[in-house]
Amino acid sequence: MTDQNSRKAVKIVVLGDIGRSPRMQYHALSLAGCGFDVNIIGYVETKPLLSIQEHPQITVTKLYPLKIEWAPKLVQYFAKTLWQTISLILTLFITGKCSYLLCQNPPAIPTLPVCRFYCLVTRTKFIIDWHNYAYSIMALSLSSNHPLLKVATCIEKFFGQSSNSNLCVTYAMKQDLLDNWDIIATVLYDRPPKIFHAITLEEKHEWFLKIGSQYQEFRHSSKDSKLETTTTQTAFTKVEGSIVKTISNRPGLLFSSTSWTPDEDFSILMEALQVYETTYALAKNLPKLICVITGKGPMKDYYKEKIASRNWQHVRVVMPWLEACDYPTMVASADLGVCLHTSSSGLDLPMKVVDMFGAGLPVCAYDFKCLNELVQNGENGYTFSNGDELSKQIVSWFQDFPNNDKQNKIAETMRRNLMKFQESRWEDNWNLRVKKLFDS
Fold first, then answer.
1. pTM (2 decimals)?
2. Which of 21, 429, 376, 344 has the alpha carbon at shortest distance from 173?
3. In what order do the strands lie in the sheet with 252-257?
4. Alpha-carbon distances of 7 from 83, 89, 91, 123, 292, rounded to whole Å
5. Strands annotated E in 30-163
6. What is the pLDDT of residues 298-321, one digit of tens each?
7. Cα torsion angle, 214, 218, 220, 225, sign
8. Which residues, in sequence order, are bridge partners of residue 227?
């Protein structure tokens, strides 16, 4: 590698699934847009964005996970850490020198020590992007005085302090890093890229036709209750002449995205949907509800079985696997979003809400310490603390839907407020706050 190429190279380390790390993918696109050659190193369980795959200045170097599910958890942890240490350090050196290394945290172990060692040997500038604290995630399953947690916290703090520059996701985290670990960080709020935007009714119609080819809930149901596949009508829209219109008695469309892990309590949404099912029969002024839930994770099959056992008649839950190019369209087609994200540290914000806001979708979000940096209750969405509050918000939103003038005005006001949020996009925000770190 020539000196000229070396000066223009950046490595991005994601010791997780690259495809499910949108922020780091956006970093890569922004860096490539500035003329850098970018190498993303991480696991490829999910396909990265098409713009990543096709970009001539971005390469993806795949890491391979170690799978030993048969071993005790402690043995798995140490074996996995050793394997990751060896594979990451070899990959970093084999792929050559670079001028900057941008590392996602968490995970901190072995990412931070390995990346710091590489940067010391190759005289590379070390930049950490703090999404959360790794020790706070570990604390969900370990007691506060567990020796492993104490060691992990010390490692994260020590190597975090060794970086040349730091980014973080909220002002609350910026203050916490400074107060507790004497780390100075630049706040880079997650902002939606331009692929997340409001769409026309015609675009929604085309999307409902497309997804309806796989999921019958989106298809038009005729009077004899048979589901029809047609290009002129879906469960939500119809074509009259050459004009697309909404169907007056269409279902409501609720959207959520989850990682299906214990830190997102899906039972809260299940409780809310059960209340909606019961209220539908009593109130007589609610539409049928289709709830689309995307994402994959360890508890998906568990909840899929629980939902099937409820045998709801007026609520349908669809769990599609969406391509990256279809996800923004699905978000923009919904009537209301739900976010179940809770923060282990109380200092990070859910990217899924950022995406929903980018598409002009108001959100009901689980409330925690710094959520008000993103969601303003009653202005661009609602916050809730339990299933009862969430169920009331969903029922209220869909009362006399879609012909409730009062509720429609509330929804329209929220969407107007979201237009202010949409004025600041990832690209502009990154150029303002981060680009300078790679010019030094």
1. 0.84
2. 344
3. 315-318, 289-294, 252-257, 336-339, 363-366, 381-384
4. 30, 21, 19, 12, 46
5. 37-43, 58-62, 100-105, 125-130
6. 888 888 899 999 999 999 999 998
7. positive
8. 221
